[in-house]
Amino acid sequence: MEFLQNNSLYIVLIITIICWLGIFIYLLNLDKKIKKLEKDIKNN
Amino acid sequence: MVYKIILGIGLTITIIAGLSFPMVEIPRFWYEMPIVPGLEDKARIIFFHVPTAWVSVIAFISSLYFGIKYLRNSEYTNDIKSVTAASLGFLFCILATITGAIWAKFSWGTYWNWDPRQTSIFILLLIYGAYFALRSSIENEEKKATLSAVYSIIAGLTVPFFIFIMPRIVASLHPDPIINPQAKIHMNPTMLIIFLLSLIGFTGIYIWMFTLKVKFSILNYSKKMKEQE
Predict the structure, then answer these.
(1) Contacts of B220 in chain A (CB under 8 A)
(2) Which of B36, B50, B94, B217 falls between 20 and 30 A from B192, CA-CA?
(3) Which residues contact B1 (CB under 8 A, 6 or more apart)?
(4) pLDDT for the residue B177
(5) How far is residue A28 from each of residues A22, B79, B97, B129, B209, measured CA to CA in Å?
(6) Neighbours of B220 (CB within 10 A)
(7) Which of the four pLDDT bands, split at 50, 70 and 90, describes residue A1?
(8) Which chain A residues have a beta carbon less than 8 Å from that of B48?
(9) Rounded CA gap, B107 and B102, in Å?
(10) Which residue has the higher pLDDT, B96 or B40?
(11) Predicted confidence (pLDDT) per residue in A7-39, tens digit
């Protein structure tokens, strides 16, 4: 905490990473769903 | 495809510039930004936190738009678009809340202090949380789409109030850079360009995620319909 207080650039870095992770997890989830749909369509 | 490559490169440049361009007392070179008194490097959050809130507003408003379109023509794709926009808006709203709370910890000393901004975004999260609860509680597809279209219109109408009006009625510690005439952050052209690029980049990412999800949902829906036949 003290490190972050003295080096506030890293707080912004954490914030950027959270934004990126949110988008990434969403896309990962969507990718999983698309794969499942692909598989279902193939099997039918 | 070209737009996606430009988007990727543009956002990468924006992130690098936003994080690494030096903040100095009096900017002399094109890449220098002015120091924001009291915020210092924490002011850089504006390049990442504000676009997430911006995207959630765009998403909620587009959810309202597609809700109206659905009520006018009962086209199922409009329902899909409306719910996709609302879910993406919800995601970006959560991101804005988390990133804001982390910033608040280091600027205000606590993650959460019910500042008007925090309160209004919390209420928005509740409103849209209820939207998804409503959708999952109705089994009949048509009824679900109609009711949620009506709800998305009502919910969308409250968005400008909670994002733009309420935080200005009640005294807040939140820095309101470009929109507020008594701006607490004075942006020089470099800062403004990075900020606008970030807004455009995040909007582009939103449009990309939106079209992907809509394509998926339409395929899924037609598959379901075929199975029922």
Answers:
(1) 33, 37
(2) B94
(3) none
(4) 47
(5) 10, 23, 22, 22, 11
(6) 17
(7) confident
(8) 12, 15-16, 19
(9) 9
(10) B96
(11) 888 898 999 999 999 999 999 999 999 999 989
Nearest CA distance, A22 vs chain B (angstrom): 7
User: What letter does residue A11 receive in the DSSP assignment?
Assistant: H
Give the minimum alpha-carbon distance from B140 to chain A in angstroms, rounded to a whole number.
22
Q: What one-character-per-residue DSSP string does chain B give? A: -HHHHHHHHHHHHHHHHHHHSPEESS--STT-EE--TTTGGGGGGGGTHHHHHHHHHHHHHHHHHHHHHHHHH--HHHHHHHHHHHHHHHHHHHHHHHHHHHHHHHHTSSS----HHHHHHHHHHHHHHHHHHHHHH--SHHHHHHHHHHHHHHHHHHHHIIIIIHHHHS------TTT-TT-SS---HHHHHHHHHHHHHHHHHHHHHHHHHHHHHHHHHHHHHHHH-
Q: State how far the Cα of B94 lies from the Cα of B46, in Å rounded to an integer.
A: 16
- pLDDT given for residue B179 in this prediction: 42
Q: Which pair of structure tokens corresponds to residue B15?
A: 């992130």
* Residue to test with chain A: of B95, B199, B202, B208, most A Cβ within 10 A: B95
What tokens were used for B32? 């220098």
B114: left (phi over 0), alpha (psi -120 to 50) or beta: left
Q: Which residue on chain A is closest to B198 by alpha carbon? A: A16
The ipTM is: 0.87
Residue range B170-223, pLDDT digits in tens: 777 777 644 445 545 677 888 899 999 999 999 999 999 999 999 999 999 988
pLDDT in tens, B91-120: 999 999 999 999 999 888 899 989 888 999
